[in-house]
Design a protein that fits this description.
Elements (H helix, E strand, L loop, with lengths): L2 H27 L3 H13 L11 H17 L4 H6 L1 H26 L5 H11 L4 H11 L3 H33 L8 H32 L3 H21 L4 H19 L2 H35 L5 H59 L9 H25 L4 H9 L5 H7 L9 H29 L10 H26 L4 H13 L18 H26 L4 H19 L7
């Protein structure tokens, strides 16, 4: 083994150890792991024997970013994402565009020689907050569910806006150098963005549904986890080839798989997938922040020739941090006003829907088509479902209404990170100010991580914003336990009617479903592969119960009839029960 290989081996081992140590100590000292790793990486890079680290930006944006976004998206409840879509789009599209323009104007005022297109490119680079740092801190601080959903949704979607704006700015720079190319106009930018999103939505939905369909049929857990690992790239690459946003496609596919897969992918497979993505996310996310710290001294050295110039660059970077923070807080009050107006409109629409449903029910009372399975009866079921979803959305948003404390934390949680550092390195290298622009991006990322990330716990305490301990959550959970248990009992009864079993097996299955427990010691005494054995009969009944319960939870999640936290808790309990019953088996049907 040569000397260089030894150095890299030692560095990788130290990196993995530092990642694990940062995760261990961050929760004990109250400092987010990304902050510790940036500082640790900078300190580690000062050791003479440590080689220079240079990760190509394409690796981060095309190889590391899709899995990170996918692993985050599969955990986001679709109902919560839908309810907060207005806020998420406002922050991830409008705020990113405004932040990019404001940053470009400030930078151009100081360095007009750059040209506005290049200034706007840097503005696009530093405009999207990092999803990893904000949500990691938010979970530790126990922020309210709606605040967490907004921060997660913003972090998942804003990268797409920033990358489209960056691509457009780079096209404008190329246009200025090539007179044969048409000028880039506002409408070209809008059209490119709409096409990018439209393609991504279609590809993401199609890929997500196909993944769920295929994984529903898979029996081998190894094949299932292999498919789960390549899923983000299967969603990313086609969208990029078609001119769409691979980032948005990955997010949509993750949302589809994460929510529809709960009812169709076996619990054992989902548990394996969850642990795999958890380990991957921890190593890659924290590894990228460690790499940021390792690269920081090298970036500083590129402009260190003139001390005054270095201070000027750092000063501009810090000024842009202030500009980004000011813009973020400036757009939040109009958002609150818009949400309150939307709530009043939603209440009026709900009242009209209620009246329409009442008239439809009255019409059915006089209609011969009210027989089960009739067209009008089916129409009534669909109307009731739509009304139930709207009503649940309205009640949830009313109970979790955003206030000035919520927006204060949302505003302060705009830390930059991985995408900012990677995208900065895609700026034109032939520019004489390339090193200065990259350093500005590093300053913005590191300063916001340290200042805003480091003080976010204090801001949260000062604003007295903690997770609401709803006194009704226990009752909500108990109600869901009853509903899901009854759904399981009904599943057993249907299976029993179709394929009768021994009376004792039937009673045992019913009892186990009602108490969500039961030891199956007799599995050791019989052959579970024998379809006539009581074990096989019992498993068949329990599989019917689990399938009915999963379908009910999927419907409850879609309608939003219970809080996402309660549904998630129930899903975890049912998954544990199903995994414990099936043991090492993988075939759930």
């Amino acid at each position: 083994m040569d000397h260089l290989t030894e150095h890299w081996t030692v560095l990788i081992v130290m990196g993995v150890v530092l990642v694990g140590a940062a995760g261990f100590f961050s929760s004990r000292i109250g400092v987010a792991a990304p902050l510790l790793l940036v500082v640790a990486g900078a300190a580690l890079s000062l050791i003479p024997s440590v080689p220079e680290i240079e990760v190509p930006p394409e690796i981060i944006l095309s190889v590391m970013l899709p899995p990170l976004l996918y692993s985050a998206a599969i955990k986001v409840p679709a109902a919560d994402f839908r309810r907060n879509l207005r806020v998420i789009l406002y922050l991830s599209v409008a705020l990113v565009a405004i932040s990019a323009a404001a940053s470009a104007l400030v930078l151009h005022a100081f360095w007009p020689m750059l040209g506005f297109a290049l200034c706007f490119a840097l503005g696009a680079v530093i405009s999207p907050p990092d999803a990893v740092a904000a949500t990691a801190l938010g979970r530790k601080l126990g922020l309210p569910p709606r605040v967490m959903t907004i921060l997660e949704g913003e972090g998942l979607m804003n990268d797409a806006t920033a990358l489209v704006l960056l691509s457009t700015a780079l096209s404008a720079i190329s246009t200025a150098e090539d007179p044969t190319v048409h000028d880039v106009t506002f409408w070209i930018v809008v059209g490119k963005f709409l096409w990018s999103v439209a393609v991504a939505l279609v590809v993401g939905f199609v890929v997500g549904h196909l993944l769920v369909l295929v994984r529903h049929k898979l029996v081998d857990p190894v094949l299932d986890i292999a498919l789960a690992i390549v899923a983000p790239f299967v969603a990313f690459l086609p969208a990029e080839v078609m001119g769409g946003s691979g980032v948005v496609s990955v997010v949509i596919a993750g949302l589809v798989v994460g929510n529809q897969g709960l009812a169709r992918v076996p619990a054992a497979h989902r548990a394996t997938e969850s642990s795999t993505w958890g380990m991957f996310s921890m190593i890659v996310e924290n590894g990228v922040f460690l790499t940021m710290g390792l690269q920081l001294p090298t970036v500083v050295e590129t402009v260190v020739g003139n001390p005054l110039h270095l201070l000027e660059v750092i000063g501009i970077g810090l000024l842009l941090c202030v500009v980004l923070l000011a813009v973020r807080f400036a757009v939040l009050p109009p958002l609150l006003l818009t949400l309150r107006q939307a709530a009043r409109v939603r209440e009026r629409k709900l009242a009209r829907a209620d009246a329409q449903l009442t008239r439809l029910e009255a019409r059915l009372e006089e209609s011969d088509a009210a027989a089960p399975g009739g067209r009008v009866s089916s129409e009534l079921r669909r109307a009731r479902r739509r009304w139930s979803r709207r009503n649940n959305d309205f009640e949830t948003l009313r109970d979790q209404r955003l206030g000035w404390r919520d927006t204060g934390v949302i505003g302060w949680a705009g830390m930059r990170g991985v995408v900012t550092v990677a995208a900065a390195q895609t700026l034109p290298r032939e520019s004489p100010f390339y090193n200065e622009l990259v350093l500005i991006a590093f300053v913005v990322a590191v300063a916001t991580l340290i200042v805003q990330g480091g003080t976010l716990p204090l801001v949260t305490r000062l604003l007295k914003l903690q997770r609401d301990e709803n006194s009704n959550e226990r009752q909500d959970f108990l109600a869901l336990v009853t509903e899901v248990t009854e759904a399981g009992v009904q599943g057993i009864e249907r299976e029993e009617a179709a394929n009768p079993t021994s009376d004792g097996t039937y009673r045992t299955a019913i009892k186990r479903t009602r108490v969500l427990q039961g030891a199956l010691e007799k599995y050791l005494d019989v052959d579970p592969e024998d379809p006539t054995s009581e074990v096989a009969q019992y498993q068949r009944l329990m599989f019917a119960s689990h399938e009915a319960q999963r379908e009910y939870l999927a419907e409850a999640r879609s309608l939003g009839s219970h809080s996402s936290e309660v549904i998630q808790r129930m899903q975890e309990l049912l998954d544990r029960d199903e995994i414990a019953m099936t043991g090492d088996t993988t075939d759930g049907h």
